[in-house]
């Protein structure tokens, strides 16, 4: 059947010969779907020559209980031309929300180079759900972050952000060295206003630049590699000693329970064998 097809990408992922793609299965036939999905997302791994960052990174988020897309691989051909191996990333749609939160009735926003600054609330792009209440909560959270002398920063932020969820999200981003996500660069994230808790939950996106020691857009080699605090929520929390300790506890717990280097290396070896025969010529030169 006929479907909708478009190129996608922002800055670092753009490629005129191997663009990232979105396929809308119900573009023509409104009933069309595949196992409940109506949108397929294929990322070109432009910034990830290893082809491992997205599949391994999202898997760690999900294993840690921080909702994130599922991710696999796809070989893409267009008019008989092999475009090579793409990351097949679960789209940020209702099936993901139901799986991650048990409820898809909330409001989902995408954050692209945006943070909770005064006057920026309209820069959060609504993707799903009702806007009025959740947009107002964005304004309220921004007002909290604008206040300098809060008696209890964590409690004030926790009125609008699910803190258990955020600390896990934050710690995973630090653990996997994702330098272009929310806490590292106020980019590549979604926030979901959960109707069950009436609080925001953060989710990762665009994870093709993880597992790197340093940011490619910041040259400060003195900055700690175990924590990232550019995102305003993370920054305000990290100024409080008890919050720093909570972050450290969360990070250590993640490493104890979900960071198994032997298993990760074995997965990389298996993936390399599986993917190598299907690489595009441009990928063969870089795959390592």
- What multimeric state do the chains show? single chain
Instruction: Please tally the helical runs, counting DSSP H or I stretches of 4 or more residues.
Output: 10
Indicate the mean pLDDT: 94
> Approximately how much helix is present in the residues?
25-40%
Unreliable runs, pLDDT <50, ≥5 residues?
A: none
How does the major sheet shape up? 5 strands, antiparallel
Question: What's the structural domain tally?
Answer: 2
Protein name: Cellulosomal protein
What does this structure look like?
By secondary structure, the protein is an alpha+beta fold. Helices cover 35% and strands 19% of the residues. It is built from 10 helices and 9 strands. α5 crosses α8. A hairpin with a 4-residue loop joins β8 (189-194) and β9 (199-204). The model has no long low-confidence stretch (mean pLDDT 94). It has 2 domains: 4-92, no CATH class; 102-258, no CATH class. The protein has helices at 53-63, 94-101, 132-146, 153-158, 163-175, 182-185, 232-238, 241-258, 261-275, 281-284; strands at 4-8, 20-24, 39-43, 71-78, 81-90, 107-111, 125-128, 189-194, 199-204.
